[in-house]
Amino acid sequence: MDTAPRLGFIGVGAMGGAMARNLLAAGYPLTAFDISGERLAAIVAAGAERAESAAEVARRCDIVLTSLRSSAIFVEVAQGELLPNARAGQAFIDLGTTAPPETRRLAAAFAARGATLLDVPVSGGPHGIETRTLRMFAGGDRAAFDRCRRLLEALGGPKHIVYCGPGGCGQIVKGVNQLAMGLGDAAYMEALAFGVRAGVDPEAIREAVGGDDGFRRHFAAIAGRVVEGKGESLWVKFPELPYFLAEAAEQGVPLPLAEALYTFLSAVEPRWRDNMARPTASFWHELASRRLTGGADGSGV
To answer: pLDDT category, 267, cuts 50, 70, 90?
Structure first.
């Protein structure tokens, strides 16, 4: 913003820490907080000032950025520590993935205190931050977004910042992004599992169906991870599906594929990845070992 605001950053893990370092490199003074003492110490060593709580960041700073693991965690922090300390003219920027209905509810609560909540979820991972090609989907007050745009460019580059509309629209477009990736990958994994479960070597399937362009290139990448024993790196955005199913229900928009995927996965023992965290178990191992066509145990991944 135009008057050298005091910046705060809450959540400096793999994503938040990389974005916070970009802000420091761009010359922005930064006050930071994280529940992990190790992560907080690392960003302080990089040049940030230490805060002892999220509430302290809200009290000290004019613009507060958050990069938290899940919708539930952001809502808890926003309601319990940020909102009670919000003041007129202050801006809060949620860089995580949050359920759109919760975003709209919180945006109204911040507005009632004279503050602004921008939802700016991101996609591209640490590599996108490092290469300044991060995709940012912005929702909220347009004037506040325009004032903060230079700050957002410092986070992950100017190329893929898109203003999507009023509060919650950034999260909705992040949903489009996540559903496009998750449903697509789930379809390729199911197709591959069909062949493997029927007795065909996955390498033969990759060679026969994969290719260098279009869907064949994406399929080959999925099959290649399985062939190479790296299926544990595959996931389908399962923890975030409820965020977008909730929005779809509120808007009366059917999401039959997302609903089917969520129902299918809900029967599996909870060993999936949280938002912005690494997976803890092999998705492929579960996918290949359970009945994919509605078997007797009704299970799946």
So the answer is: confident
Helix (H, G, I), strand (E, B) or coil at 136: strand
164 and 138 in contact (C-beta within 8 Å)?
A: yes
Domain count, the chain: 2
Helix, strand, coil in percent for the chain, rounding step 5? 55, 10, 35
- pLDDT for residue 289: 44
Same domain, 93 and 141: yes
CB 280 within 8 A of CB 271: yes
Domain with 280 in it: 173-289
Report residue 233's pLDDT band, with 50, 70 and 90 as the boundaries. Answer: confident
- Tokens representing residue 18 in the block: 């990389």
Instruction: Indicate the pTM of the whole model.
Output: 0.86
Tell me which residues are annotated as active site: 174
d(CA 261, CA 236): 9
pLDDT tens column, 101-143: 999 999 999 999 999 999 999 999 999 999 999 999 999 999 9
Which residue among 165, 191, 208 closes a domain? 165
Does 144 fall in a domain?
yes
The structure tokens listed for 229 are: 């024993």
Domain boundary among 122, 142, 165: 165
